[in-house]
Records
---
Amino acid sequence: MAAIQATPRLRQRKAPLKMRLVPYLFLLPNMAIFGLFTVWPAINGFNISMYSSSNGRTFRWEGTGNYQRILTDEDFWGIVRNTVVYALAFVLLSVVLGVMLAVLVDQQRRGRTFFRSVFFIPVLISPVVAGLVWNWMLERQNGLINTFLGTLGIPEVPWLVDNTLAMVVVIGVGTWMQVGFYMLILLAGLQSIDPSVYEAAKIDGASRWQQFISLTFPLLQPSILVVVVLATIHGFQAFDFIYTLTGGGPVGATTLIVQYIYENGFVSPIRYGVATAGSVLLFCAIFALTIANWMIGRKREAA
Amino acid sequence: MSHSTVTKDAPAIGPSKTWTSTGRSKVTSTDALRVVILVTSALLALIPIVWLVLGSFKTPTELSKRPPTLLPESWGLSNYTEAMTRFNFPSYLTNSVIVTLAATLLTLAINSMAAYALAKYNFRGKNGLFLLTLATIMIPLQVILLPVYQVVASLGLVNTLWGLIIPAAATPTGVFILRQYMLSIPDELIEAARVDGAGEFRIFFRIVLPMCRPALAVVAILSIMWRWNDFLWPLVVAQSESVYTLPVALARFTAEETVPFNLILAMSVVTVLPVIILFLFFQRQIVTGIANTGIK
């Protein structure tokens, strides 16, 4: 076949079939796993969300029934609210603290690597362990934190008992775990800024704060955009550390969407359709927000 | 804190060295404030981990003391040995090690092959496949948890280590990092090998792979860190106790309160320590790897 297609006009004869197959052979193992365990499930998820099942084996057609069910379910809206509150606060804190730490580490000459490493260590910790250690430290009566506050004369704080405080704790621990990662990205962004830019500003007599506002911040925008996009995705995915930190409690006050999907899918009573419908909505949210973030970022860059 | 004061007050030897510069400039109040904030943040980052390590040496009686004591009474390893002998922790540890290593090897093998095809060949559908790979960075496992579980269940991989290893092996980030690196390998090198009569797969294994060692190291380290700490997928697939990984075991036992807390703490240290040690050894590669994936 290859011989017929090859015309003498072409400087290079078309490669024989065997050669043309080579790239596909290289791709095959990766794409097979990728297709089977990512692409196909992503498509099939829409399909499953149209059915209901209480065991994951026998399915019954529901049409848009699952969506109607969860969209009119007050519990689901509570979970959406929790997730949005968490994600918003998490993205905001990650950006603000990430930029702050990156700028401070960047300006620090002595011990820069030391601080960079220290801030990164929480990122490396197993989220399950992070959750259980913070849960232990935040114990109401005997926890490290309340004991410390006690020595300052502050009465016991019901960290994991009060709904609002529990959410504050979850946001705080989530940020504690991830901010070092965003700091690294921002630090790389800072270090790619041409130092001569600052020389000019110094000659003009700009203060450090003025330099930050008028130079660093605008030049750092591409890295900040990356952090916003990643933090948004991470924020909507939060699950593992919450599982051991609050377990989603008290009474569902810190239950986020992924836990909702997990529990409906795998903890009885199993409601498969509801869980997949929730997943599809989560996907739509992540997709829309990622696109929106990029568009806003692009516009800013163009302006 | 003490470190900074020591440095600042240290008698000047030669030109006075300050915390912030090696030159002659003085320590300004901004510099001092910066150091204070940095040191406070560093303490906030480290205290929970230090507290965990200290706690892992304490006895149940010490742990229930009011107020809690700072240092353990003895530094004996009894919590560690007890967790390892009275409970099945050796098995969870082995599972974690097997899953992490096997998954990382598989990822390296298939990602590098795919990356090579995408970097060094021209073929129909190349751009489409590359874009598809990149786009799925936006589809985290959390979003497709149930449909993936369906696939794994229909293949009979639930409650097997393969079920933990295979599904997430085709990482888009790995393909991306390796492809970017392979683009920088000169085509002439590959052409020359072809002229010498080397087969395509031989060229890949003998010439391309050895040249990609730095990128392979980055992908390997990221994969190890990620798979070792992975929780949601193992929680779903490892339903019977014999295939638990360390994080799954810790989460289950903490929730059920079936294992004494002092042993949980010891096993938490075992879970946390390998990754921190790995990081301290390969800091530079990890930092550049993350900086690059973040920016590009």
---
Amino acid sequence: MATITINGERRNWEGEKTLRELIQSLNLKTENLLIEQNFEIVPANQLDERMARAGDVIEIIRIVGGG
Amino acid sequence: MKKLEKLIIAGAEFHSRLFVGTGKFPSPQVMAEAIEASGSEMVTVALRRVDVNNPEDSTLSALDFSKYRLLPNTSGARNADEAVRLAKLSRAACNTNWIKLEVTPDPNYLLPDGVETLKAAVTLLGLGFIVLPYINADPILAKRLEEAGCATVMPLASPIGSNRGLMTRDQIAIIIEQSRVPVVVDAGLGMPSHAAEAIEMGADAVLVNTAIAIAGKPIAMAEAFKLAIEAAEKVRLADPAGATVFARPSSPLTGFLR
């Protein structure tokens, strides 16, 4: 079974989705999120073009409170 | 006493010498009101992985980002490589090239790793970042970071969140004496009097988070820090007389009782 790693968690993965579809499938809004795909930052305007593929390492990050 | 000069960091002028962290507040609304009450013009933020199984996070929802300069930090970085990665992510997420560089491999005291911090600073400066490094109160390291091109140095008063005040006072005094970039005392300032002491000593600014955020009344505490810092600025302008060993009579000694 093909897998994808999202925020350190391995998930089963079949077919293709754009990164935006991937985020939406996790019930997340894409606003105020930053996506890193295979250690490369994905510009917000490329979420509809870039495809999530089996084997990818995806990080979904947001700004939070901190000192 | 060190002359009070305008606070300019990398070309940006700040009218408030208080920077505030946004962590650990009881609610987004209290945080927003406390920061407003503090008069601060720059707030620190952090980056975290979204919890995919529990995605709601409204921590910063109440903050008006147009009112404050954002200073993202690299908290969580344990070495230079992790700090550089976090800095790049922060630049993309926060749309700023300013970065509070912190590398804290030690989980108990969260003390910064000076070697990795200098290494990361050099890399980040080469990438065009404005670097504000969080450091132990080490005058030599502060000098090295200044020479590398950092915009400030940010020595700790005591461990992050410990509220213990200026435990590193003598070392910070040397940093203030020698530094040609603004000195921002960061971490461990637990009371407004601690912040005032730092400014009276000649620090250019202070950064406070925990002491405000976990106070019973964060908004009132934020205002207390603001007022203490303003008082300390007036001290710098007032040319204090200094201390002596022997008493100096405040009332005239007329001599007729002898």
